[in-house]
Amino acid sequence: MGVYEELQDRGLIAQVTDEKEVREMVNSGKAIFYIGFDPTADSLHVGHFMALCLMKRLQMAGNRPIALMGGGTGMIGDPSGRTDLRKVLTVEEIDHNIACFKEQMSRFIDFSEGKAILVNNGDWLRNLNLMEFLREAGPHFSVNEMLRARCYVNRLANGLSFLEFSYMLMQGYDFYRLYEDYGCNMEFGGDDQWSNMLAGTELIRKKLGKDAHAMTITLLTNKEGKKMGKTASGAVWLDPKKTSPYDFYQYWRNVDDADVGKCLRLLTFIPMDEIREMDKWEGAELNKAKAVLAFHLTELVHGTEEAKKAEEAAKSLFAGAGASANVPSYTLSKEEYEGGVDVLTLLVLTGLAPSKGEARRNVQQGGVSFAGEKVTDIGRVFRPEEFSGEPLLQKGKKSFVKVLYC
Fold it and tell me: Where do we find the motif 'KMSKS' region here (predicted)?
C-alpha cells in the first residue's frame, strides 16, 4: 500500500484535482507540496494538527514539504468558514507568531538540508506593487466565479469586505510564486480551502501553461459536524504554556464515543489493522481506546515523558488517589491571595473558566469543588490558610488544578 492508499484508507482525502496524477506523484515521492499557515496567534492549535500530521506522513514517504508562513496573507485574514471579520494584526505581531510556529513545527517536520522548506509569503506580498499585481494576476480571476466560491458564502451574508475578497487572489498568487521559485507542484489543505487552492492551479495553468495539483483533507469535526479543538475556555493549543500537556491529554481522553475511531484514523500513526480492532471495542474497552488516543497525540506534541506524566496524573485523580505532582497547578501571588480570593476569580485565574460569567454558571450548576468539598456560594472567599495543603480546585468531573501559593 502506497501513502496515497493509506490516506484513503484513513478517510483523510476529501477532494483532489487529478487523482491518477496525484496518486503517482505522492507514492513515488515526487511531490513538492505546500500547506499554508496564517499566523493569527502565537501558537499552533488542534485545527493545524491534521495538516502537520499530513506533512509528516508525506515527508516520511519521500516527498518534500513546504511550510508556507502567511506573513503577507496573515495581514488580511482568511474569510473561509467565518461569519465575522478577523482581527487585523500588526506586522510585529505576525512576525512574532511566525517565530513561534517555526519552533513548534520542528517537532513534526524535518527541516534539515533537502528535507523541507520554510517560506514566508510576506517576502513577496508585503512589497508587492498594486498596479503590477493587478495587471499580472487580475485578468486571470473571474469575479463571478469568485462570488460563487464556498469560502465567501458566510461572509457575503454579513458583508464581505474588499480586504477579505482579495484573499483568494493572494493565495492563488502564493502557489504561482512557489511553483516558479521552488518547483512546488502541489498544494494540500483543509476541505474549506478548495476554492482558494483551485485559484492557484488555474493561475499557474493560465500564466505558465503548466499543470499543478491540489488535494484537500477531511476537516476534523465531531459527530454534530462542528470543528474539534475547542473547549469552554477556548482553543486547544499545541504550546504547553497555553494548554498544558495534562489538559491536552484530557481533551482527547474525553472525546465523544462516536468520535474515537475517526480521531484515531485521522490523527494518529497507529496502523490501521490495530485501529480496526479497536473499532470493535465497547464499554470499558472504548475508554481504553480513548486513553490510547490521548497518549499517542500527547506524545506526538509534547514527547513521551510529558505523555506519561499526563497519563499518570489522570489515573491518580480518577482512582481517588488524591493530588498528583503531574496535575496542572496554579501558583497564587501574594497580591492575589493575601486578603482572600473569591471562587469566581480563582476559577478564572486557574484557567478552569474563561470568564466570571462562565464561572458563576459553573458554581450555580453545582460543578465546582475545592479540596473535595462542593462550592455552592458564588460569593465564597478562600483565605490564605486554605491553600496550605495544595488543594485541588475541580470543575466538572474531569478538570482539575492544584492551587499553590507563594
Answer: 227-231
Q: Which residues are annotated as a binding site for ATP?
A: 230
Q: What is the pLDDT of residue 88?
A: 72
H or E segment to which residue 13 belongs = strand 13-16
Spacing of C-alpha 99 from chain mean position: 17
Provide the whole-model pTM. 0.78
CA-CA distance, 151 to 82, in Å (whole number)? 8
Binding site: which residues? 34, 167, 171, 230
Which band of pLDDT confidence, cut at 50, 70 and 90, is reported for residue 323?
A: very low
Please state the residue numbers annotated as binding site for L-tyrosine.
Answer: 34, 167, 171
Distance, CA of 268 to chain centre: 14
| SS3 state at 268 | coil
Whole-number Å distance between alpha carbons of 71 and 76: 10
pLDDT at residue 320 tops 70: no
pLDDT band with cut points at 50, 70 and 90 for residue 83: very low
The matching CATH number, chosen from 2.60.40.10, 3.40.50.1700, 3.40.50.300, 1.10.240.10, for 244-319 is 1.10.240.10
Name the architecture of domain 329-405.
Answer: Roll (3.10)
Domain boundaries, the chain: 3-217, 244-319, 329-405
Quick one: which H or E segment has residue 149? Answer: none
Q: Who wins on pLDDT, 82 or 149?
A: 149
Structure-derived torsion over alpha carbons of residues 12, 16, 21, 23, reported in degrees to the nearest 10: 10
Select the CATH number that applies to the domain covering 3-217 from these four: 3.40.50.620, 1.10.10.60, 3.30.565.10, 3.40.50.700. Answer: 3.40.50.620
Residues 6+ apart with CB under 8 A from 330: 349, 350, 351, 401, 402, 403, 404
Instruction: Output the nine-digit C-alpha cell for 149.
Output: 466560491
Averaged pLDDT score across all residues of the chain:
87
Angle between helical axes of 194-208 and 167-182 (0-180°, round to 10): 50
